[in-house]
Amino acid sequence: MGLEAVTIPMRDLTPHERQLWQEWQGARPQLRSPFFNIGFSDAVASEGSDVAVAKLYEAGRLIGFFPYQRRGGTAYPVGAPMNDYHAVIGDPHTRVTLEDVARLLPTKRLSVNSWIGPDNGPDDDRYLRQSTCQATIGPDGYDMWFEGRRIQHNKYFKDKARSRRGMEAAFGPMRVQIEGANHDMLEQLIHLKSQQYRRTGRHDIFGPKWTRRLLHRLLDGDDSFKASLASLWAGDTLLAMELSLHADGVWHFWFPAYLEIGAKYSPGIWLSMETMRQVCTDGYDEFDYGFSGEAYKKYFCNRSEQVVEAIVGAGDWTDLVRLAAKRPDLAVSIRRRWAAIEASEPRWTGRMVGTILAGRGFMSRIARKESSK
């Protein structure tokens, strides 16, 4: 008897199964991210009825869980597109591949953007491998970690010190406050992110009500697993905010937002550094910056993980785009935009509107490029 799966609603997990989930997550360092905490799947399930768990069996023995949500014929990791990491939460001695999970789910395909696990597919352009970026604080604490980074990247941090002096000269002394249930400020952050998505032509994942409700629910979590909102002020002027998700010693920087008035002073850099300094005293020793694409992250991160982005299963329509356009980069861009639309929009009407808006934005960008030649 090989691998098998039984799919149940998240709410039907037994107390014993929930305990296994927590034990298996705690036994694997690769699963330290708060996105693997059972509290994240519980929170998403509380905001929608479509969250399921595939219980994976081998030779009749339960070996793992994979929480997901279904959109049409596609399975997405639970909480997508806001889930930054996904994997099978399972027995540390069991190897379950991405292809295994896609085959066992009751859907045509599985779409992932940052999969952690063994044997992550063949070496071809359907499986995009990316690196993530983490700052691991050593036993000597934040000050010693920062001193090491400052010595290694002296010019960069001198420039940031000048930016801080300029910011304080313009607005007043800098301070960072980290708080839990400030729902008014969270709404302000969501508004800024929605404006950013629309301005840059990306799908506004906060259009559907469930994504907003999820963030508010997480903000009300307990100290073992929750979201917190950090804000940077200079004098009485708010310049930057960031919502982070955290649990088990890991602080995941999640949704940042900046006000244009202070952009030239790099407030986001100071917000993350001061957040790290403050919460290190609460036992947090790993800070996750997500994908390593932005240039500034290399100055902070001393560890990385490889993750995989792919659509596995039948009917990968972006293969047609790739063959027609001979442009794998274009196919990846289209696939990402569609995944954000499909995963966040539970209704077909929302997916249709999102697709139309994305198409208009795509065509207008092509027109601007052509006119600039």
Task: Write up this protein.
It is a single chain. With 373 residues, the chain is an alpha+beta fold. It folds into 3 domains: 1-130 and 308-316, Aminopeptidase, CATH 3.40.630; 138-284, Aminopeptidase (3-Layer(aba) Sandwich), CATH 3.40.630.30; 318-373, no CATH class. It is 40% helix and 26% strand. It contains 11 helices and 13 strands. It has helices spanning 15-27, 38-46, 98-104, 142-152, 154-171, 183-199, 209-219, 267-280, 318-325, 328-344, 348-371; strands spanning 3-9, 51-58, 61-71, 74-77, 89-90, 109-115, 128-136, 174-179, 225-234, 237-247, 250-258, 286-291, 306-313. Strands 1, 2, 3, 4, 5, 6, 7, 8, 9, 10, 11, 12 and 13 form a 13-stranded mixed sheet that branches. A hairpin with a 2-residue loop joins β2 and β3. α2 (38-46) crosses α7, α4 (142-152) crosses α5 (154-171) and α9 (318-325) runs antiparallel to α10 (328-344). It is globular, with a radius of gyration of 21 Å. The N and C termini lie far apart (61 Å). Residues 320-326 have low confidence and may be disordered.
